[in-house]
């Protein structure tokens, strides 16, 4: 029986994904955490914790160094809220182009008897533009950016995409009509609207700063629905004062953005739909079950992709440091135990490596000896023995 501990409110559909071989919140020594936004940086990880799955995209709330040292695999649910974010960005594009917020504020404050006549007289103040034929620069063409780019094409916009890290698989999801820019400044130089959809990392911190904003046309409208810190807010406010940015829309508020007429802050609702919460919770639960039952890894944050059909009777999985001679040390321990390897695979990601070894014949004494021997290798973080059912 596997033990799962949940944090935050997890969609019931996700919890119901777990089979009868899983118990929820019944143990202080869980095999897995299923989380959303809880901050785990000051959290003491139990030694039993084999996997953390976040029902969402960002993993800034998970201390990866601690997880690595504990031998804990970390997963997120990429793409689970992509459609939700896409729809919000599309809505804001329409709102921005038609001055809908200013028009609604006007109507809310002019409620006198002659409002209809007054509105008729003043409505030219809110004349907008159409999105048809306008240019949208999409910075980041992953799960969200590709959806935004394709949807903007269907609205008749010219779309220019920029993503130096675009994978071959992701490229298949992008319509061929999306123009590709080789530099960020080239992508934004003729844009009426710029929207940012990149993960947060050292490389993307302040990705949109003063130099990039200076490359944009006057009166551009900027959208940040990726992560806080991707856009330099101080540079944005300076550009608003200079008349370069007409309006800034973001899901990530800071005190300096408060009470700014040309800034609209939404309260981190980009991925907050009922459907997205269900998608994230369901995907996270499935990821946990796959990892605990098979040891296979797809798109983990801290482990390499490694998927091996589980056909043998037994499987050892080893998380270890990515240092020389680890495979040799591991196989030597199996030879010392008199075990023949049926299947073996190894891959590395950064400082960590992951090894899967399948064996057909294994008795209790041999399994205990081998588990202890592998755990005694200094660079090993976690050893698991899985039984094929």
Task: Give the overall form.
Answer: elongated
Mean pLDDT: 93
CATH homologous superfamily designation of the largest domain: NAD(P)-binding Rossmann-like Domain
Tell me the name of the CATH class of the largest domain.
Alpha Beta
Any idea of the CATH topology of the largest domain?
A: Rossmann fold
Give the count of structural domains.
3
Number of strands: 16
Give me the Rg, rounded: 26 Å
How far from one another are the termini? 13 Å
- Which stretches of 5+ consecutive residues score pLDDT under 50? none
Could you tell me the strand content as a percent range?
A: 15-25%
Helix content: 25-40%
Give the count of helical stretches: 13
| CATH architectural category of the largest domain | 3-Layer(aba) Sandwich
Question: Which class do the helix and strand fractions yield?
Answer: alpha/beta
Order of helices and strands: EHEEEHEHHHEHEHEHEHEHEEHEHEEHE
Give the strand line-up of the largest sheet: 8-7-6-9-10-11-12
How does the major sheet shape up? 7 strands, parallel
């Amino acid at each position: 029986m596997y033990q799962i501990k949940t944090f935050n409110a997890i969609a019931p559909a996700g919890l119901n994904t777990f089979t009868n071989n899983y118990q929820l919140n019944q143990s202080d020594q869980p095999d897995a955490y299923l989380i959303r936004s809880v901050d785990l940086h000051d959290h003491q990880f139990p030694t039993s914790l084999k996997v953390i799955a976040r029902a969402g995209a960002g993993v800034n709330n998970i201390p990866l160094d601690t997880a690595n040292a504990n031998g804990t695999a970390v997963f997120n649910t990429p793409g689970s809220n992509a459609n939700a974010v896409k729809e919000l960005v599309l809505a804001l594009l329409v709102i921005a182009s038609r001055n809908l917020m200013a028009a609604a504020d006007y109507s809310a404050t002019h409620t006198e008897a002659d409002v209809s006549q007054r509105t008729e007289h003043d409505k030219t103040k809110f004349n907008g533009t159409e999105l048809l034929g306008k240019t949208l620069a999409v910075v980041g063409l992953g799960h969200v950016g590709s959806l935004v780019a394709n949807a903007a094409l269907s609205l008749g916009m010219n779309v220019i995409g920029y993503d130096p890290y675009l994978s071959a698989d992701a490229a298949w999801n992008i319509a061929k009509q999306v123009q590709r820019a080789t530099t960020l400044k080239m992508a934004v130089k003729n844009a009426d609207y710029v929207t940012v959809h990149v993960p947060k990392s050292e490389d993307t911190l302040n990705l949109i700063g003063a130099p990039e904003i200076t490359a944009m046309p006057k009166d551009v409208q900027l959208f940040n629905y990726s992560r806080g810190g991707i856009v330099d807010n101080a540079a944005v406010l300076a550009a608003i004062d200079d008349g370069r940015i007409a309006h800034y829309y973001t899901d990530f508020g800071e005190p300096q953005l408060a009470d700014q007429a040309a800034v609209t802050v939404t309260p981190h609702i980009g991925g907050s739909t009922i459907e997205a919460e269900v998608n994230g919770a369901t995907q996270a639960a499935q990821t946990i079950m796959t990892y605990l039952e098979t040891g296979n890894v797809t798109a983990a944050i801290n482990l390499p992709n490694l998927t091996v059909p589980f056909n043998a009777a037994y499987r050892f999985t080893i998380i270890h440091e990515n240092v020389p001679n680890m495979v040799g040390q591991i196989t030597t321990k199996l030879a010392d135990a008199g075990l023949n390897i049926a299947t073996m695979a190894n891959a590395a990601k950064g400082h960590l490596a992951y090894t899967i070894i399948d064996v057909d014949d294994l008795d209790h004494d041999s399994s205990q000896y081998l588990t202890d021997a592998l755990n005694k290798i200094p660079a090993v973080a976690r050893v698991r023995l899985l039984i094929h059912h």
